[in-house]
Amino acid sequence: MRVIRILAIDDHEMTTTGYKYILEAEEFNDFEVRVEIATSYEMGKEKIEFSARSLNYDIILLDIQLFPSHSKEIRSGEDLGILAREIVPESKVVFMSSFSDNLRINSIFKSVDPDGYMVKSEIDEKSLRIMVETVVTKPPYYTAGAFAAIRRRMTNDVVLDELDKKILYYISIGTRTKDIAPLISSATTTVESRKRQLKALFGIENGNDINLIEEARKKGFI
Hints:
- Helices cover about 50% and strands about 15% of the residues.
- With about 220 residues, it is an alpha/beta fold.
- α2 (about 40-55) runs parallel beside α3, α4 packs across α6 and α8 packs across α9.
């Protein structure tokens, strides 16, 4: 019988273990499932890169927020999705996230164009089974909350670029505006302008840096 190989990446081991237990116990009509797990960005990156040199995963399940990398670079499940698209384009990519914010989902769809998106609060045994069957045969698959956010995103084509994300990261670790500029090879005026744009985008025009970071965390950008 055909084997569907799945890589589940989430920094909560109980979550990935749950996916593995449920999916490997399911009886599918035309295949059986084998799930490998990774609990950090680095472990997930290593497994994806190794699969590019051997046997690709059929499906890669990604959480958006992962434990920070040991380096000072900004890393997330979105970065792993971009990597997967580049080196294992045959693999299907599905995000399993607690974030249903249309701005965050908009960013994911712009950068990765995933084959599925599941809001964690809507995941159960039935939806996991249907997701695998759908993604293997005729993707995409979305849970109801994800689909609603996708419909909302069609009216808002705004997306944060890498410079915005770097600025948010440096602010979040306490870096002063004047010190951020050389770190991202930009002028201080550029950083200040970007901060104003981000505050407007998040609906906190009169907020301070703390408010900005709070909103960025709520939406899963940090």
